[in-house]
Structures are given as structure tokens and as C-alpha cells.
Amino acid sequence: MKDKLVVKVTAEGVYKRKLLLKAAKISLSAILLFLLIMYSVLYIVNETGYFTIIIDRNSADSLLLSSTRDFSTTEVNLRANSPESMDNISELWLPPDINDHEGDNSGKDYIAYTFFIKNDSQRSVDYEASINIRSVTKNVDEAVRVKVYHNDEPTVFAKLARDGNPEPGTVPFTSNTRVMGNIRRDFEPEEIDKYTVVIWLEGDDPECTDEIIGGFMNMYMLIRLHEE
After folding, report:
1. 25-61, pLDDT tens digit by residue?
2. Whole-angstrom Cα distance, residue 212 to residue 107?
3. Is the pTM higher than 0.85?
4. How far apart, in whole angstroms, are the C-alpha atoms of residue 215 and residue 207?
């Protein structure tokens, strides 16, 4: 009788251990899957950055994108090395030569990127250059400024003030999800356009308050052929 009891207890113990082992494997698999998903999300966020420049895939046969004027290398997208955090500054604090560089020239509290577009086709084309808002939190877009130099001519864009009027010295955002959109007409073969995009938090904006601390804004500039 004693031997039978021992066998019974041992069998129950083995069964319980198998159940615990199975549960542990399921839990471990779930944790690994969760970590993989989180890593993928963080990877996408890091690769996307705060600001990217993208050539539309249907336009890549006609338009070339490069961070250098000599087009020694060409890309289908460019990404600014955005600062981990940005404090508010004044436009007057931006370096006076911010438009005189090539590629990424971001500083501690601003994003700056200069790039070039070339017509690589055999015909004159029109293209559209637009800056779009991918995501925003804590209404940080209310204090953001986007300065676009097109062939050295600057324009500053900002969201409308809360009273519905343009911020001083700025052109209003086209919409809540679009900063600007310009059509470049009669872009001739071998012609090159230069752009510098500068992004910062304007400290003189009345909407630049403690409420936007910790906010996040992600933008991209899309270059694509424009067909009437």
C-alpha cells in the first residue's frame, strides 16, 4: 500500500511540473513577442525621426535627391539627426549661416537640413514640395516654426494663433496636417533646386507655454511630380 501511494504522489508531481513548465514557456513566449513588438515600434520611431525628406517612388525616375550639390550620392529619403529634446529659442538665435551648409546641420535646439533636387529627365517637369505632419502631441505644433529656404529665399510657416490670425512674420500652415505645399513649375532638365528646412520652438510665441513640455512632433517633406 505504501508503494502504491508513493507512485501516485510521484505521478501527480510530474504532471504538475509539466503544467508549470508549459505555463512558463507560454509566458516566456508572450514576453518575447511583446518585446519584439516594442522593439519594432521603437525602431520605426527612431528611423522615422522628427523630420525626413522623401522622393515619391513614382517620381524617382525623373527627380534626384541628394544632400550634396554635386550629387555624388543620391537617396530616396534623407533623415535629420534630430536633437533628443528641444528648448524654446528665438529665430534671432539661429546661426546666420544656417543656409550655407550641405546635409544635416542641426543644433542643440533646432533641426536644420539642406538638400538638393535635380531634374534627371529629358523634359521640363513640374513638381510639388510639401511638408506634412505625421503626428503631434500636447499641441506642440502651436509653437513650432518651420523656415523653408527655396533657392536661398526664406519663408517662415506657423500655425494660426488662437485668435485666428497669422503669427507675425509667418505664413499660416495649410491645414492641421500640412505645413506647406508649393508647386515648382518648368523645372528644366539638369536644373538643380536647393532647399534648407529649419524647425524650432519659437519662444516668443504666446502658445509656447509649460503645457507643451514633453510634446512631440513628427514631420516629413514629400517631393513628387505634379501632373495637371
Report:
1. 777 766 766 555 444 333 333 333 479 999 999 999 9
2. 20
3. no
4. 13
